[in-house]
Amino acid sequence: MKITNDRMRDALCAEYVLGTLRGPARRRFMRLLQHDVGLRQRVAFWEETLVSFARGTAPVSPSPQSWAAISRRLGLAEPRTQSRFRPIGPLRYWLAAVAVVLAVGLSMLSPLRERFMFEPDVRVAITDDARQALWIIEADRNRNRLRVRTLRDIPVAQDKSLELWLLLADGSAPVSLGLMPQTQGAELELQPRADLRAGNGFAVSLEPRGGSPTGRATGPILHVQTFGQTT
Predict the structure, then answer these.
(1) Per-residue model confidence (pLDDT) at position 109
(2) Which CATH class is domain 122-226?
(3) Rg, the chain, Cα only
């Protein structure tokens, strides 16, 4: 079995990292990982992204008022009139603790989902002189995120790198978006500082190893692909 749908691949990788992919599905996925380099790279991306998200999230200590509100919602609040039967003390507190964890988790879910959503409104292929596709570039301009997929090995001299540029619609100098991956199956996720909505195309230049030292394209422009400002 080979998963070719990008959204499904991302969803499975995320579930695998989160631990929600279980049973036979997890075992099948682990077998796929042994032979699919691109899938392993997506898993590594999700691991790093989730770890960085956890590092940037401060622990939340609920206030006494929050505890009381959660207990009331779950029916765990101490009744004013003593009942003949009362829940076991430790059980009440364990249930309340679980409720707090769920409440905090739900409050984090929306921004987490937004962070990982990727809905491209631009999709272009960068091709060589023989019209063979080298990279697929997708851009979600609303979230200012970019994804690059490498379709074949692209060798260059050891002292050179390939750099991606955003061509600006107003004709001003192109803006660097980062170095291009050169190995077949490699993917690159970017959230550039430049506003992708200001662009109308991409270019790839040959630069010294590590990229342009000036912030401007210094080497030959090898590939150019334009796109409309609106789709």
Answers:
(1) 45
(2) mainly beta
(3) 25
